[in-house]
Design a protein that fits this description.
The protein is α+β, with helices and mostly antiparallel strands. It has helices at about 45-55, 75-80, 90-105, 135-145, 160-170, 185-190, 200-210; strands at about 15, 65, 70, 105-110, 110-115, 115-120, 130-135, 150, 180, 215-220, 225-230, 240. It is built from 7 helices and 12 strands. The strands form 4 sheets. The chain has a 4-stranded antiparallel beta sheet. Strands 10-11-9-12 form a 4-stranded mixed beta sheet. A two-stranded antiparallel ribbon has the order 1-8. Helix 1 (about 45-55) crosses helix 2 (about 75-80). The protein is globular and about 55 Å long. The N and C termini lie far apart (about 40 Å).
């Protein structure tokens, strides 16, 4: 069951996210220290960002605005299950690591680093439904004071890099023109670190994203990611927004 406010509406097919709260910077893997589990790494923090932003902005019954606290009740579990953030035996470890990172790891903003949460239910033995997280005022401002964009939940892919490309499309593609991001700019936006994402990986990602949703058409041509909104002629000149 979806909830809503007068500001944002979301059904079973769309979630909400903001550029300020989506952790595009988070590494895909823990290259430096694989034993350090309390880090914002991989797909879990990305999915959690979409889930929490959606529940906060749609006025879910899981959200207590006065106490800045999100409980992991029915709405949270429905979205987390749908996006495969929770999956059986691995769920407790994933949530423990993620909540610990929210309470301890700096989160970069335009005004400097902040913490996402000031407190959370970190007991490894409690059930998912008894978990909660209390966001810092600074992080909550990032959620509520920035423009939220819709993302089709059914299209959210498995690999984190494909999710990042889908998020870039949701955040920055205009309704009336193509978005063009050269490979060099993608290298700055995505957390590739010391390794370079191959062209074949972008081509594979574009093909898969085109098969899972119809809001945008993805292509990787002339060393650039090109995202075309549905209904826009991809060959029409002039209708382009470039990111450098």
């Amino acid at each position: 069951m979806a909830t809503q406010t007068t500001e944002h509406k979301t059904g079973t097919e769309t979630g909400l996210l903001t550029a300020a709260t989506y952790p595009l910077f988070a590494p895909y893997t823990r290259h430096g220290n694989p034993d350090d589990t309390a880090t914002l790494t991989g797909k879990p923090p990305r999915l959690m960002s979409i889930i929490t932003t959606t529940l906060i902005l749609t006025g879910s019954t899981c959200w207590n605005a006065e106490e800045r606290t999100l409980t992991f009740g029915h709405d949270w579990q429905r979205l987390a299950g749908r996006l495969k953030l929770i999956n059986g035996g691995a769920t407790r470890d994933v949530l423990n690591n993620l909540l610990a990172a929210y309470c301890t790891e700096p989160f970069p903003t335009e005004d400097g680093d902040i913490l996402i949460a000031e407190d959370a239910a970190l007991d490894p033995d409690i059930t998912t439904s008894r978990r909660w997280i209390r966001f810092t005022p600074e992080y909550l401002d990032l959620v509520t004071e920035h423009e939220a964009k819709e993302i089709p939940l059914d299209a959210i892919p498995g690999p984190a890099i494909e999710l990042d490309l889908l998020v870039l499309a949701a955040l920055y593609t205009p309704d009336d023109r193509r978005l063009v991001i050269p490979a060099a700019a993608l290298g700055e936006l995505l957390p590739g670190g010391k390794w370079t994402i191959k062209t074949s990986r972008y081509l594979q990602a574009a093909k898969h994203l085109n098969s899972t949703q119809g809001k945008w058409v993805f292509a990787f041509e002339s060393r650039s990611l090109i995202v075309t909104p549905a209904g826009i002629d991809p060959d029409r000149k002039g209708l382009v927004m470039r990111v450098y």
